[in-house]
Amino acid sequence: MRHLPFVFAALFAFSAAPVPESPSVGASEGRLTPPAKGTIPVAFVLTEGAVMIDFAGPWEVFEGVHVDSRGTSMEEQMPFELYTVSDSRKPIHVSGGMQVIPDHTFDDAPAPRVVVIPAQGGHSPKMLAWIRKMTTQADVVMSVCTGAFKLAATGVLKGKKATTHHGSYDRFQKEFPDVLLQRNMRYVRSDLRVFTAGGLSSGIDLALHVVDLYFGRDVAEKTAGYLEYEGKGWTGDGSAARAYASSAPPSR
């Protein structure tokens, strides 16, 4: 597994777990059921211009999860396996100019149980088709910030609730009038599989919420503590602590 240069990643090898055809979700509470053994593969969709905090925040959350009860070794206790996927393995430049070489392409990526879609420039037909397919197979497909535009472009948000960066509320509503835009939210659960986060740091809250859904509040709290993350937006219903004005953000 290749880790991004700016991530302090654990030096352990993971074996991928198969993905079920239906989401491993508890019907009563909408909770997620992790595999009894093996890892939870997490695919980060990255193309040119991907916004670093949108994917680096969730990356660090998932990489920092330790579940003592899953085994005796550090490898067994770290349940998430992380990798990047793009149109090709050619180097891409993310926000700020950092260069990233994707681990996989949409043609050969291992089947994920979690997909993270940050704000980015790519919108190839292959990318959108892959994302659409994952919304029928993975446990979680989550957008962060204006990554919601990519998710909405696949058609899977039609008639469902979703959110995005507050500076893009108006544009999102104009481009996707059939999506039920939710303002002033850290994150929204659109259906059993699909989630959208608000801007930038909201992705950290959504990732912690996903950890909570898989492993419970204690593990999520432990992960937040390890990260020294003091935000509590992930512990409630996704509502933001303040109302944001709809001012246009920098072009992504």
Main beta sheet strand tally, sense and closure: 7 strands, mixed
Q: What count of helical segments does DSSP give?
A: 7
The CATH homology group name: Class I glutamine amidotransferase (GATase) domain
Helix vs. strand class: alpha/beta
Which ranges are low-confidence, i.e. pLDDT below 50, for 5 or more consecutive residues? 1-22
Shape: globular
Q: Write down how many β-strands occur, each being a DSSP E stretch of 2 or more residues.
A: 13
Distance between the termini: 28 Å
- Indicate how many domains the architecture comprises: 1
Descriptive report:
- The chain is α/β, with parallel strands linked by helices and 252 residues long.
- It has one domain: Class I glutamine amidotransferase (GATase) domain (Rossmann fold, 3-Layer(aba) Sandwich), CATH 3.40.50.
- Helices cover 25% and strands 17% of the residues.
- It has seven helices and 13 strands.
- Strand 12 and strand 13 form a beta hairpin.
- Helix 6 packs across helix 7.
- It starts with 24 loop residues before the first strand and ends in a 26-residue tail after the last helix.
